[in-house]
Each structure stands twice: as structure tokens, then as C-alpha cells.
């Protein structure tokens, strides 16, 4: 695979100088999500284990986390209320299963120098302890919904 430097990338970096440290998880939604979890548990060599859940009040969405390896998780998003976000999840996933977002661990979200118009909504408490999240609009990331994740207080 040929190497690429920053000069090969067109346009501005949507997150400015903020460093991306790692992939945190992939979020999935839709009624088929339960079948995906069952498939991964029964049909793969992965040691799939439930690692907890949390309810995000601002969105009225239940987040169930599953460890797929020692350093990677799948987040299954289940709408529980009638917020704009919960209703969007229902229509997005439907009766199938879709990848909703890719979550990337970044630095301190409170110190970002990113224009507000690049975000969907405000920063909220995520589905894990000490987790803050903020979503970038897909039009700035090549059509993919990106969740920026900041774990604070773990210093």
C-alpha cells in the first residue's frame, strides 16, 4: 500500500489540531442488532461478553456495550423514548441492522478549537462512566457519522 502524507489529503481537517488516539467502538442500531450480537456470540471465535449498559437521558437511548476483544467494543443503540434522536434511530435502523457511527478517542473535548457548525448538538455524557461525546456532521467526514469520545477524570 503506498504511503500518504498530509499533502495528499484534500480540504481541511474537520477536527483541526486535535489528536485521535484510538478507535473506541462502533455503534450499531436496528431491530437486527440483537441477531448480530447472537451471531457474534455463537458463530465466531470472538469472546463476546456484555460489558454493561447505560441510558443516555438527553437522547432517551439505551446503550448496550459488548466487548469483542480486549480493546474493542460494539455499542448497540436501542431507542426508548420519543426524542428526535430516538425516533431517528428507529427510522435509520428499521427492521435490519446498520452501522450507526464510528467512535474515536480524542483529547479534551472542552478544549477543542472546532467550529460549532461542524457538530450535531451539544457535548453530552456518554454511555460509560467519565465519557463525554460529541458528534461530527457526516458532511465533514466523508458521509460517516463520527463520535468524538473524551474519557475525563482518568488521569
Please give a structural write-up.
Strand 2 and strand 3 form a beta hairpin. 14% of the residues lie in helices and 41% in strands. The protein is built from two helices and eight strands, in the order E-H-E-E-E-H-E-E-E-E. The radius of gyration is 16 Å and the shape is globular. The protein has an eight-stranded mixed sheet. It has a single domain (17-151), classed as 2,3-Dihydroxybiphenyl 1,2-Dioxygenase, domain 1 (Roll), CATH 3.10.180.10. Residues 1-10 have low confidence and may be disordered. With 155 residues, it is mostly beta strands.
Give a short synopsis of this structure.
The chain has helices spanning about 35-45, 85-95, and strands at about 20-30, 50-55, 60-70, 70-80, 100-105, 120-125, 130-135, 145-150. The protein has about 160 residues and is mainly β.
CATH architecture: Roll
Tally the helices. Answer: 2
Q: What strand line-up does the widest sheet have?
A: 2-3-4-1-5-8-7-6
Number of domains: 1
Q: Order of helices and strands, N to C?
A: EHEEEHEEEE
Which word captures the global form? globular
Number of strands: 8
Kindly provide the radius of gyration, computed on alpha-carbon positions and rounded to a whole number of angstroms: 16 Å
Strand content: 35-45%
Features:
eight-stranded mixed β-sheet, 2,3-Dihydroxybiphenyl 1,2-Dioxygenase, domain 1, 41% strand, 2 helices, 155 residues, mainly beta
SSE layout and pairing:
Layout: E1 20-29, H1 33-43, E2 49-56, E3 61-69, E4 72-79, H2 84-93, E5 98-106, E6 119-125, E7 131-136, E8 146-151
Parallel strand pairs: 1-4, 5-8
Antiparallel strand pairs: 1-5, 2-3, 3-4, 6-7, 7-8
Amino acid at each position: 500500500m503506498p504511503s500518504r502524507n498530509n499533502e495528499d489529503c484534500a480540504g481541511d481537517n474537520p477536527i483541526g489540531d486535535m489528536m485521535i488516539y484510538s478507535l473506541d467502538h462502533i455503534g450499531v442500531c436496528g431491530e437486527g442488532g440483537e441477531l448480530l450480537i447472537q451471531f457474534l456470540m455463537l458463530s465466531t471465535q470472538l469472546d463476546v461478553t456484555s460489558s454493561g449498559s447505560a441510558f443516555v437521558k438527553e437522547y432517551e437511548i439505551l446503550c448496550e456495550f459488548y466487548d469483542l476483544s480486549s480493546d474493542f467494543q460494539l455499542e448497540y443503540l436501542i431507542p426508548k423514548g420519543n426524542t428526535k434522536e430516538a425516533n431517528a434511530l428507529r427510522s435509520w435502523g428499521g427492521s435490519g441492522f446498520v452501522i450507526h457511527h464510528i467512535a474515536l478517542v480524542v483529547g479534551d473535548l472542552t478544549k477543542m478549537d472546532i467550529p460549532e457548525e461542524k457538530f450535531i448538538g451539544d457535548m453530552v455524557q456518554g454511555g460509560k462512566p467519565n465519557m463525554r461525546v460529541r458528534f461530527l456532521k457526516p458532511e465533514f467526514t466523508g458521509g460517516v457519522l463520527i463520535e468524538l469520545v473524551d474519557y475525563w477524570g482518568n488521569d
